[in-house]
Amino acid sequence: MSKQKLELTWVGKEKRPKLEPRILLEDPEKSYHAKQRVSENDIFDNRLIFGDNLLALKALEQEFAGKVKCVFIDPPYNTGSAFTHYDDGLEHSIWLGLMRDRLEIIKRLLSDDGSLWITIDDNEAHYLKVLCDEVFGRRFFVADVSWRTTDNSNNNAKTFSLDTNHVLIYGRSTDWVPNFIQDDAKRSHFKNPDNDPRGPWFDGNPVNNPALRPNLQFNLVGPYGDVIKHPPNGWRWSKDTIEEKIKAGEIRFSEDGKRIIRRTYLQDMDKGLPPSNFWASLDDTGHNRQAKYELKNLFPEIPTVELFGTPKPERLLRKILELATNSGDLVLDSFAGSGTTGAVAHKMGRRWIMVELGEHCHTHIIPRLKKVIDGEDPGGITKAVDWQGGGGFRYYRLAPSLIVEDRWGNPVINPEYNAAQLAEALCKLEGFTYAPSETRWWQQGHSSERDFLYVTTQNLSAAQLQALSDEVGAEQSLLVCCAAFHGISAAAAAARWPNLTLKKIPKMVLARCEWGHDDYSLNVANLPLAEPSPTIPAAKAAKSGRKPSDSRTTDLFGDGEDA
C-alpha cells in the first residue's frame, strides 16, 4: 500500500504575492531616546516600524536574515468577531495564506539558535500547527504550551469555558532547547528524608538509553531473584556502573524487587529545570484582564473601550523571553498590538523590532515606550526586573512603492524618491548592500569587495560610460542602473566595457514585484474576495445565496468540509 502525504490545502494556496522589498525611512521626530544613559547596557537602536507587517518583514529580510533570536507573534485569531483595532473575521483560507506568507519570511529571519512563539486560540490553533509543520518542518516543532488566560471562568459559556490559549513553539534547528528555569519554587519536589549526603532528591526517570545501544541490552536480577528486563534501547550505563550506583544508593530496587528506581539530585540540576508546557500560574504568566488593567493604569486618559480587549500581560512575555533569549539578543514582533513585546524586551535588556500598521502605533505604542524609556512605567514587570529607564528606539515607516504610473499610465520611478533613496531601493532589489562611498562617487553599494552598484536617472553617453569604466578598473565590476544609454547598443557595450553591466530603470525591475500594493494586512476590509472553488461554480454559489468568498476547500483530511 503506497503512503500518501497529507498536507493542509486551501483555496488560493498556490497564490503567492510578489513582495516589493521596500526601504525604511526614519522619522526622527517620532524616534525617542533617553536624555542620558542610565547604565552601560542601555540599548538605543531598537526599531518601531509603521506599515504593513508583511512588507515590513520583507524590508527587514536583507539586513536581518539569520539574526533574530526570538520571534513572538500574537496574530488575529480569526474568530469572526470585530475588534476595535482590527477586523478578526477573515475567511479561513485567506487567513491561512496570509499567515503562510509571513511565516516563510520569519523562518529566514531567525538565527540558527532562534525560536518562534505564537499565541493562538482553539479556532485556528490546529490548522496553524500543521501550517507551521509545512513551513518549518515537523521535526522543528518544540511544544504546544497551554497558557491560562483568565482568572475567572466564564459561567455563561454554552459548552466549555475557554480558559486557555495555545503557545506554539518552533526552533530554527532540531537541537534548539530553551533556557532552563532557575526558580526555587519549581524545586520544591526535591526532598531529603533519609539525609542522603548528596542532598535533596526525587525519584526520577528510569535509566533507559535514548539511543539504541546493543552492548547495553542486558538484564538485571533483583534481590528476590526476579529478572528485570532491559529497556528497548538498553540501559544508560554499563552493568558495572549500575552496580556501583546501586551500592551508592543512587539507584535502588523497588519494594517488590521487580524494577529499579533512579534518584535525581538537585545538585545535578545546575542548568536549572526544564520548563513545563502547562502555564497555569497567574502569578507567573499573568492573564488578559490583568494586562488590560495595566494598560488602563498606564493610559488613564484613554477610554476603556479604546483599549485592547485581550492584550498580552508583561509577565507572559517575560516568561517567553527568559526561556528563549539572553541579554542583548534580538526580539521581533510583527503584530505589535499594544507594544507589550517591545516594552518587556526593553526592560529586560533585549534588542527589539516591532511592526504595527494601525494608528494605535502612534496613540498607544509610542506613548507607552516613552514612559518605559523615561522610567515612568511602574506596572508590568518593572519592579521584578528593577527597571530604571533608559535606552531608546528609532521610528521608521515603509517607503512608498518605488514604481508608480504617470498621468498616461506609464510605469515610472516614484517622484517622491530622492537620489539616495533610489540608490538604496535599487541596492535592495538587486541584492546589494547600500553603502555610499565618501571618496568614489559611483560606489553606492556593494555585493562583494570588488562588485559595486551605481544609480543615476541620467541618460549616459558612450563617453560617460568610458570614463566610468576607466575609474572602476579591470579588477572591479560595476552594475550601472540608469535611465538610458545612447550611442551604443547593449551588446556592443558589454563587449567594449566588460567591467560594466548596464541596466535601464525602471524597466529592469518592472516584472519583479507587485508595485503599488501597500496593504497585505490581516484585515478583511483590505482583502479581495476569494475566487469560487472549481467544485462549486459561481452560478451555483449565487443560486444558493452564498458569496464567492464562502467557497469550500479540502481540509487536512481531504473530506471537503468547509474551511
Automatic annotation (TrEMBL):
<dbReference type="GO" id="GO:0008170">
    <property type="term" value="F:N-methyltransferase activity"/>
</dbReference>
<dbReference type="GO" id="GO:0032259">
    <property type="term" value="P:methylation"/>
</dbReference>
<feature type="domain" description="DNA methylase N-4/N-6">
    <location>
        <begin position="68"/>
        <end position="363"/>
    </location>
</feature>
<dbReference type="InterPro" id="IPR002052">
    <property type="entry name" value="DNA_methylase_N6_adenine_CS"/>
</dbReference>
<dbReference type="Pfam" id="PF01555">
    <property type="entry name" value="N6_N4_Mtase"/>
</dbReference>
<comment type="similarity">
    <text>Belongs to the N(4)/N(6)-methyltransferase family.</text>
</comment>
<dbReference type="InterPro" id="IPR029063">
    <property type="entry name" value="SAM-dependent_MTases_sf"/>
</dbReference>
<protein>
    <recommendedName>
        <fullName>site-specific DNA-methyltransferase (adenine-specific)</fullName>
        <ecNumber>2.1.1.72</ecNumber>
    </recommendedName>
</protein>
<dbReference type="InterPro" id="IPR002941">
    <property type="entry name" value="DNA_methylase_N4/N6"/>
</dbReference>
<keyword id="KW-0489">Methyltransferase</keyword>
<feature type="region of interest" description="Disordered">
    <location>
        <begin position="532"/>
        <end position="563"/>
    </location>
</feature>
<dbReference type="InterPro" id="IPR002295">
    <property type="entry name" value="N4/N6-MTase_EcoPI_Mod-like"/>
</dbReference>
<keyword id="KW-0808">Transferase</keyword>
<dbReference type="GO" id="GO:0003677">
    <property type="term" value="F:DNA binding"/>
</dbReference>
<keyword id="KW-0949">S-adenosyl-L-methionine</keyword>
<dbReference type="GO" id="GO:0009007">
    <property type="term" value="F:site-specific DNA-methyltransferase (adenine-specific) activity"/>
</dbReference>
